[in-house]
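Worked Example 4.2. Read the sequence first, then its structure tokens.
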Amino acid sequence: MTPNPPPRVLTIAGSDSGGGAGIQADLKTMLALGTHGMSVIAAVTAQNSLGVQGYWELTPEAVRAQLDSVLDDIGAQAVKTGMLASTALVETVAERLATVGAPVVVDPVGVSKHGDSLLAPDAVTAVRSALLPVATVVTPNLYEVEQLTGIKVADESGLREAAEAVKALGPTWVLIKGGHLPGDPVDLLFDGTTEHRFTAPRHDNRHTHGTGCTLASAIASHLALGSDVPTAVTKAKAYVTGAIAAGFPLGAGIGPVDHNWQR
């Protein structure tokens, strides 16, 4: 008997040489959750537990060729975007994704966990105008909310205003990640009418490299597996919370979450 292939999920992001975030985290997450991960590499980073020492973006032609190769032959039940680096790459990816019928999860990566910039300043406009309108779900952290909208969230009461401002840019759903607020983390999922709030314990663990990539990839994986958006976010949050709790030291800086914590 010929086995049925698992649901296919495509990540379009940067490569993390340290293995904790980016393409590497995305593919580990997809495998752990029972999907087949595929990749379009948009940039290559020199990166370790201490930070990002440099990055080099691929050409739009190289990114478009990878997209066409995967989507024209294999297809995808969901797509996740991460580090896209430049205006040209954001526009290239957005143009192609507008033709894809699968849900798109956009992680609007602006900086690394260590504070290193991963997006050219002039590319923020392209993210707003081209990428967010094709997103099924966008998952900004509070820094990225401020970068996209100018709104600075100081406490949980500001999450709704932030969600409304990001929603106005065109995505179907917005997930505002409140992990950098004081107290236990609260995330807000919003579709313009209904909001869902997600809470989780704050683990005493500094090894959290790759959490944003992992969450977005987990959401995409559960969408590919057939969940609706609120259910996919609920399941993805549970997976990431476990991965953070199991995070481990690696190198001299911030270690990664454990993508295989459910083993």
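Now turn to a second chain, presented in exactly the same format:
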Amino acid sequence: MTKMEVKQKVEKLLTANSLCPEGREAVQAYLEAYGTADEKGKVEALLKELEEDITSIDDLIAFAGSEHGRQIFGEEKAAAILKAAKEAKEKGEETCICEACQIAKLILANKTALLS
């Protein structure tokens, strides 16, 4: 991917409901610094935040199947997430299937483009 294509994925990340507040701040800081002398530092901070935030499929399965997960998502949604996560894992997925984690995975896989 080109730097611009990865930047577009970063912009899309802002629309993900599952993006945590710290991730949102890092994305916004990067986008504001894009094309400035501060860009490199903000890219590095963004990548660090995404690496910390991205969730494994096993952690999603554990959370969706937990009492806390059922409290957060509700019984039906937690069951649906758990089923979808198990199916994704069976197909080889290693990362949480939420939109934020999937976009973050793509960004991290193309981080050299952002750092160029």
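Notes for the reader: The chain has two domains: 1-55+98-116, 56-97. The mean pLDDT is 97.
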